Amino acid sequence: MTGMALASSVLPTVTILHPQRAFAGINSDTLKVGLIGCGGRGSGAAAQALKADPNVVLHAVGDIFKDKMDDSLANLTKVHGDKVKVDEEHKFLGFDAYKKVLDSGVDVVILATPPHFRPEHLMAAVQAGKHIFCEKPMAVDAPGVRKVLEAAKLAKEKKISLLSGFCWRFHEPKRATFEKIQDGAIGDVLTVYNTYNTGTVWSHPRKPGWTDAEYVFRNWYYYTWLSGDHLVEQAIHSVDMMSWAFGDKLPLSAAGTGGRQVRVEPIYGNIYDHFAITYEYEDGAKGFHFSRQQVNCEGSYMCEALGTKGRAVANVSRNVHEITGRKKWKYNGVANDMYQTEHDELFAAIRKGEPINQGEYMANSTLLGIMGRMAAYTGRRITWDEALNSTEKLGPDTYSFEMTPPVVEVARPGFTHFS
């Protein structure tokens, strides 16, 4: 274990390691990575972490499903060979697996479980003194967001790197576009229109032997208490770009609508399949968000900012990044692998002893999605302060495959209450 991961009772001493040393087995400069959540995104993040530094190994993994863990390790080993150094003693199963990964001697952790668990896992990782890659979204409710903000503050005090999974912030075409916006290329931003209109996502049919709880955990996406709904879990990328265009200013309020038109069967839990949210900012500026997960419909994934001097577009679907108006501009540079860049920059920061802390904006962007969901679910206007101070806590505090899952009712605007 290096000096990079210390107990939470003391501030970690920054150790300058040697990134130029090629991997030659475990040594004093090796950074040990722990993966918490072995699904597709977690496995992808682990693969990128192992490419981000020449002297890094995957040391421990944790999940609640053995098949997910085994598949993840098999796939990672095929690609990264002896950089996967996970022995049987460092394969942890169960709802407390995250604690065991944190106690296993790792220096860096990847948090990629369903979002419901993120605040607790993040706080535990910060308290344990680990550097963190934290997948989006950061929470599913306001109490979770408040815990994330608390953890981010503590991470800053402990000089721990905390990097978010808002991947477009690491995409060079979008970095260039939003930098132009912030430098005044389109003047004062008046309106930001953003979309995430796509098809549906995966669903796992029930298998013999699964309890009700296992079925829910394997299909976590369709339960608001586990995923936050698709506005928070997936379309949050577009909401984050909206916030980026506004310079990460906080809105005054949100109002909107949503519902279930297509995914109405019980297998789809209680989430909506479409949202339309208006965010209101100071001086009358507005952000308009549209998202849906419906098959055979027109797709759109973009962010368009209109200002007093022009228009800026970051269109994911069409790979267009340009500004029109008084100052015309179009991005013609390299389109990098943003997922890899996330980890390249995280590990470079760790090696340099110059921590990155993205905790505040990643929490605020998450709350923007939660706030929009609250507005759609209740049918009322929700202010930023109301959203941040909401007492609504989604889901239980303890978990098992024998538990009775929370009753999931589809929200009804005008009847579902805000708390």
From TrEMBL:
Residues 31-155 form the Gfo/Idh/MocA-like oxidoreductase N-terminal domain. Residues 179-312 form the GFO/IDH/MocA-like oxidoreductase domain. Coiled coil: none annotated. It holds the Pfam family GFO_IDH_MocA_C3. GO terms for molecular function: nucleotide binding. PANTHER family: BCDNA.GH03377, OXIDOREDUCTASE FAMILY PROTEIN. This is Gfo/Idh/MocA family oxidoreductase. It comes from Larkinella terrae.
